[in-house]
Write a structure and sequence with these properties.
heterodimer; A: 121 residues; 7-stranded mixed beta sheet; 4-stranded antiparallel beta sheet; 11 strands; globular; B: 7-stranded mixed beta sheet
Chain lengths: 121, 107
């Protein structure tokens, strides 16, 4: 099956760290830029970060780039999100998302089921 | 950042009704717009990309239109599985941004 599966979420205290993982299967992982998008409880969707297929281009939401780091391992078909200095407002479901390209547009065509991150004392 | 504003925030409709959801961008985004729907406890699902292209497997009762700053998603003949929250999203310029969502509820 073509899918993305997130893991690594959990309960962490403010100031703590977590490393999320996203494992891909069923498609040529090397061909795709991968994103992280989050959704706080009862809220809308917020783009977090992205990494290009060869890791040459990494982007972050301005409010997060000093605390979050995205990486990937193409041999393991996985993308990672290292999150440090976590705050209560980082509480959300974190989705791993595949970026598709159909000239001349990019779009999000495949989403994982998400992993819950809860930051609370 | 490009702000995406959806209207209405929620609507009530019956099975068989036609509904329209609007999405406005704070600047010209051409046709770089997607629509998703999401049911409680599940991840978003792509319906339409590049303003009007239906994703594979999406029923033809979904139709996207617009360009520039104003876009619409029309669902003709609502089906029970269509009651969900709908989001628009621009991919014209990073950071990619989403509308706040429109909840379609059963009347």
């Amino acid at each position: 099956d073509v899918q993305l599966v997130e893991s690594g979420g959990g309960l962490v205290k403010p100031g703590g760290s977590l490393r999320l993982s996203c494992a891909a299967s069923g498609f040529t992982f090397l061909d795709y830029t991968i994103h992280w998008v989050r959704q706080a409880p009862g809220k809308g969707l917020e783009w977090v970060s992205s990494i290009s297929s060869s890791s040459n281009y990494r982007k972050y939401a301005d409010s997060l780039k000093d605390r979050f780091t995205i990486s990937r391992d193409n041999t393991k078909k996985s993308v990672y999100l290292e999150m440090n200095s976590l705050r209560t407002e980082d509480t959300a479901v974190y989705y791993c998302v595949r970026e598709a390209w159909n000239y001349p547009h990019w779009y999000f065509d495949l989403w994982g089921r998400g992993t819950q991150v809860t930051v609370s004392s | 950042d490009i702000q995406m504003t959806q209207s209405p925030a929620s609507l009530s409709a019956s099975v068989g009704d036609s509904v329209t959801i609007s999405c406005r961008a704070s600047q010209n985004i051409g046709t770089s717009l997607s629509w998703f729907h999401q049911k409680p406890g599940t991840s978003p699902n792509l319906l339409v990309y590049s303003t009007s292209n239906l994703q594979s497997g999406v029923p033809s009762r979904f139709r996207g239109s617009g360009s520039g700053t104003d876009f619409t998603l029309t669902i003709s003949s609502l089906q029970p599985e269509d009651f969900a929250t709908y989001f628009c999203q621009q991919s014209y310029k990073s950071p990619w941004t989403f509308g706040q969502g429109t909840k379609v509820e059963i009347k």
